[in-house]
Amino acid sequence: MRIRFTLWITLFIASLLVFAITACTPKKNVEKIRLSEVTRSIFYTPQYVALEKGFFTDEGLDVDLKTAWGGDKAMTALLSNSVDIALVGAETSIYVYTQGTNDPIINFAQLTQTDGTFLVAREKTEEFNWEQLKGAVFLGQRTGGMPQMVGEYVLKKHGIDPHHDLSLIQSIDFGNVPNAFASGTGDYVQLFEPTASIFEQEGIGHIVASFGEESGQVPYTTFMAKQSFLKEKPETIEKFVRGIYRGEQWVQNNEPKVIAEVVAPYFDDIDADTIAMVIERYKKQESFATNLLLTRDGWNHLQLMMKEANELSEEVPYETLVNTKMIDKVMKE
């Protein structure tokens, strides 16, 4: 009986010691970061991996992700200080700068380095040729947005004037474009995944070309913040970049099916096989940025597309709106 009592006392004292040590151990400071993404998309897979795998948590960051459902809304949230960081098209930072601002929006890392849309045809053809679009009804994207500018750039590359050689529809809201095509509007449509693949599976349309492959590398979707925020919290941005970089590296080093299992919670209405198929397609055309570094060539290519779409009032130097210090440091670690 005395042995049992002694054992109980020993265990009790040990538990008190463990509690005391735990209580006295200083907790790692956790900093909250408010992040706004332009939309919810498999196109942003490395970001969801970083969240789901705890890469931000490892850096002491609590990232609160909100979906803006529109580039203008994401930028408005950033400008009004409702969020700290925005994931949106790099062109939006140029629009803000050319309109005049004392606190410019700085691009500090890119998540995607190609366009993420595909050309979907209503009718299936044995062999697709861009000439087939001439005279057709083309359901495009919002004027001034990256999808539409890339779309026009690719059409012109193939000798098609988007405003004269076909009937271009741009009046439909981004979220309603797929429904419009499914309802019978247009001969061709420019769509993101997974909608493009789902339409193909359901026989609504057929993927005939990739705008990402046709347009080449461009800082399509980037992480950006106010210049003042970067100056006030450079270490915070560095931690954020490190988390995203780990997410990107993990995506590069794992198979689509494995990646799909990790990001599935962010896409409740899409089955795992479709998610994996889309990820594989984006990996194959190198849409996910391989190192997050927004290059000078990419920046110049972006402005060329904007200029050809008549959306660039003045060119903005690379150094003015791009800061690569954080990603340079992280990549050298």
UniProtKB/TrEMBL annotation:
Does Signal show up as a keyword for this record?
yes
In which family does this protein belong, per the annotation?
A: Belongs to the bacterial solute-binding protein SsuA/TauA family.
Q: Where does it mainly reside?
A: periplasm
Q: Name one Pfam family in it.
A: NMT1_2
Question: What is the protein's given name?
Answer: NitT/TauT family transport system substrate-binding protein
Q: Which UniProt keywords apply?
A: Signal
Subcellular location(s) per record? Periplasm
